[in-house]
């Protein structure tokens, strides 16, 4: 009889096992740390940890992106409008609309990018 082992995804998440996404990436002083959990032609799932004062400068993308606040405080600038999602809240950053991410204090997020 052969043994069956659960397969691990490329992002290191065990199938059928609850996890806390914020625990999958650690803060690093003066840095933004990222970890890709899934990547395909359909899009990507990436978690980020921003140290206080770090940011992603304004840019745009040709597809929709969703930001879920996993920990801390963040200011999203979307089309010139500041947004401050609380932990557990998710915000849509629409395709082709300039956006930026600023961390006034340590902050972790899940970024879901949908292509198409």
Kindly give the count of domains: 1
The low-pLDDT segments are 1-9
Shape: globular
CATH class: Mainly Beta
- Name the CATH homologous superfamily: Jelly Rolls
Q: Which structural class is indicated by helix and strand composition?
A: mainly beta
Q: Could you characterize what this model shows?
A:
With about 120 residues, the protein is mostly beta strands. It has a single domain, classed as Jelly Rolls (Sandwich), CATH 2.60.120.10. It contains no helices and nine strands. The strands form two sheets. The chain has a five-stranded antiparallel sheet with strand order 1-2-9-4-7, with no helix packed on it. The protein has a four-stranded antiparallel sheet with strand order 3-8-5-6, with no helix packed on it.
Which SSEs are present, and which pair or pack?
Blueprint: E1 32-40, E2 43-50, E3 55-59, E4 65-72, E5 75-78, E6 81-83, E7 90-93, E8 99-102, E9 107-114
Features:
mainly beta; 4-stranded antiparallel beta sheet; single chain; 9 strands; 116 residues
Brief overview, please?
This protein is mainly beta and 116 residues long. The protein is built from no helices and 9 strands.
């Amino acid at each position: 009889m052969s043994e069956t082992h659960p397969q691990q995804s490329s992002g290191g998440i065990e199938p059928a096992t609850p996890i806390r996404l914020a625990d999958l990436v650690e803060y690093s002083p003066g840095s933004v740390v990222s970890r890709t959990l899934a990547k395909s032609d359909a899009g990507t799932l990436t978690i980020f940890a921003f140290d206080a004062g770090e940011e992603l400068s304004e840019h745009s993308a040709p597809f929709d992106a969703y930001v879920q606040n996993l920990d801390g405080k963040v200011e999203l600038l979307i089309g010139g409008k500041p947004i401050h999602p609380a932990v557990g809240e998710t915000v849509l950053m629409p395709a082709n609309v300039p956006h930026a991410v600023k961390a006034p204090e340590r902050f972790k997020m899940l970024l879901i990018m949908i292509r198409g």
